[in-house]
């Protein structure tokens, strides 16, 4: 019944209307005809866990920088014995990954180097991590400091008298380059600890599976997972603000107004001002938080869209007024973590096994806070500033008539923006009209059309022939892709009324499905529905207060979605492959987060 | 000399008189586990019977005379011995003690001297764990009234001398006169669903797993293999049902109140394929199994039932628990060496477990 290989990207034609799509992305990310043989020998899988949607040309920067930096650590810094980097391509608007292994005969030679290099990081983990925080904060500060301002009519007299000799278009160009470099730099930091963190987790995970072949993946996750996690702080800040609104007797203002009216109304009373001070204090850094995953320019950040956190604030305030407890049961979570750990430890056969368990768990717990927290510092905070700065730059061109919407800048590749900056400075220098306003708007429309056409076809799960057995550790660790999951993609779905995925968060519930395709549609969710989506971001946290369960196409046991669902005590099945297309909004579905099964009980 | 002893009254010093099964029930009763109320006819009673009737010598001589190479003679002598036991009177003192205990049991259960009971053999031999006798002696269900109880106690004693049991003892070099038998007399459970629970995974020895087999009616259908039971694998720590394999369970054994017998009947089609346990019942079985394992400090093989006559929350009953023997004996031989620290990490990277399947 099932095939043994996926189609070749060379046979996967782009949808009608998308002609010219290849010009939107860098040449090194495309499948080229003269490299057919080489590319078809590789197994590619679609990374819709991180990049579920078609890329605007500029947004390809995230896959370029992130995946390239992941590779550099494996290949050039740690010399991970069996693994180099991950090759990546964009095809028909979606991104595909192909992890690069190391030839078996070369693995041994890399071991001593890996031991010295990675060993140093494990030995000095917390000191190096403190240093990491300083480096990342410095990058954020440098980004925040960059100014993007329109060129003045004339060069300032101070510059003339100061003998500066350069004009401000140079600064504009430099600042743009600097912004891109800072983004590149912070993407490097993203992976400085991540690969090692996952490796230590994998080691403990493997030990548990060997000692207890039937142990649920979830149990291992629960033993390692942290209690106080920075990624939950934004949500916690909102809860605190909800409590404060009630304490200060301003909850009516919060509940009865939209964000702008409420903030102005609050400024008129003493209690309101006290509450506003707390709101402002929470903003930096905790509102540098997106309901997407930070990988797209279209991701909305709380700081730039205060209506998002304000909406959550209203929900929490309302729940508090109804007498509900909105606190995270941190003590209960900590106690449960200890109970689980102790019970498994007590089942081990001897002291030697107990010592191994404790050693490996200790290391996993040392490194895991990084795995859990880095998203806040990179994807949310750093990239939040990055996208905002890009919009500041775009506003200059918008004002100069190059385009009508600040978002339009993202329809150009990053090297094209350098040209646009030059056009702007060039015309300014010569004293003639810019060319951009007469060329770019049509080009933007053409590109919008191409992207819309690409988006009509979902990505393929994978291309080419998969290896008989998936052994590449990063494929397994970071993407949760195993021999079984590849087989299930190949098998296709003969029976579409039941789906199988990872039992990511326990519990069984039945309810109506709501299929969500982008973060902007989250407000469609109705209390008591089951969220069905390609992939969730942890920042969707506040919606978890009203849903019954979550089902995703993509993601493993440690995917962001799984972590947050466990935190909220909601059943979750992740990595089903096709739930968001197999299930329709309104279907009655039964989600078994303990077994990983999802059943369509009754179609809408 | 105590000829009978209620589970709740037995002290650990008495356990030697109760056989493996009886001692287990007494010890679980003392640990406040939901064991159906009952008593043991002790090994003293059996010894008194052998001695007072004078059959002891006769029996041992007959066994000793068996030419084992002749199956027909083994069967013939086995039948003679069993007939001898079944046809003999009990010593008056023993009979009186059993009758008294049965009446007391009826009273405790608010039954009018006609409480249906299960009569089970519980053999013992010096220095031998009970497990080696598993399934070799008889169990009689739905026994009602004093005389019937006395009759089935004799039947249990007689079951020590089936051809199979005699043969087994000979193979295992168990000395005949060291083998004694206690008999358990226990309130009958009107099982809606029953089965077994093992506090490890019998297929791979995983101690973090509880494996449950369950089917409709009395547990005999599961133990005897007459039906393919529902099978559940549950993680012991997380209490998650890792796997539920629901089967078509075509027959069930149920006590029939009118004929006072156990009936075997077809299960209606729609119920046959339904899970025989709800999810919360699966978890209740596991909760009990965990307590029992902790009580005995080693993996257990447990028989349990859900009583149709008792309200939810109180309907779970434990029929038997004995140490798991297969994996528990194997384990010490194969302790793997663990790679620690960076070395372990390299090992996990080069050969990630998920790739080993």
UniProtKB/TrEMBL annotation, chain A:
Pfam families: PEP-utilizers. Keywords: Kinase, Pyruvate, Transferase. Residues 527-596 form the PEP-utilising enzyme mobile domain. It is an enzyme of class 2 (transferase). GO terms for molecular function: pyruvate, water dikinase activity. InterPro entries: PEP-util_enz_mobile_dom, PEP_Utilizing_Enz, Phosphohistidine_dom_sf. Its EC number is 2.7.9.2. SUPFAM superfamilies: Phosphohistidine domain. This is Pyruvate,water dikinase.
TrEMBL record, chain B:
Pathway: Carbohydrate biosynthesis; gluconeogenesis. It holds the Pfam family PPDK_N. Its cofactor is Mg(2+). Keywords: ATP-binding, Kinase, Magnesium, Metal-binding, Nucleotide-binding, Pyruvate, Transferase. It catalyses: pyruvate + ATP + H2O = phosphoenolpyruvate + AMP + phosphate + 2 H(+). The lineage of its organism: Bacteria, Pseudomonadati, Bacteroidota, Cytophagia, Cytophagales. One of its GO terms (molecular function) is metal ion binding. The keyword Hydrolase does not apply. Gene3D superfamilies: ATP-grasp fold, A domain, ATP-grasp fold, B domain. Catalyzes the phosphorylation of pyruvate to phosphoenolpyruvate. Its EC number is 2.7.9.2. Residues 17-336 form the Pyruvate phosphate dikinase AMP/ATP-binding domain. Belongs to the PEP-utilizing enzyme family. One of its GO terms (biological process) is gluconeogenesis. It comes from Runella defluvii. This is Phosphoenolpyruvate synthase. It is an enzyme of class 2 (transferase). The keyword Oxidoreductase does not apply.
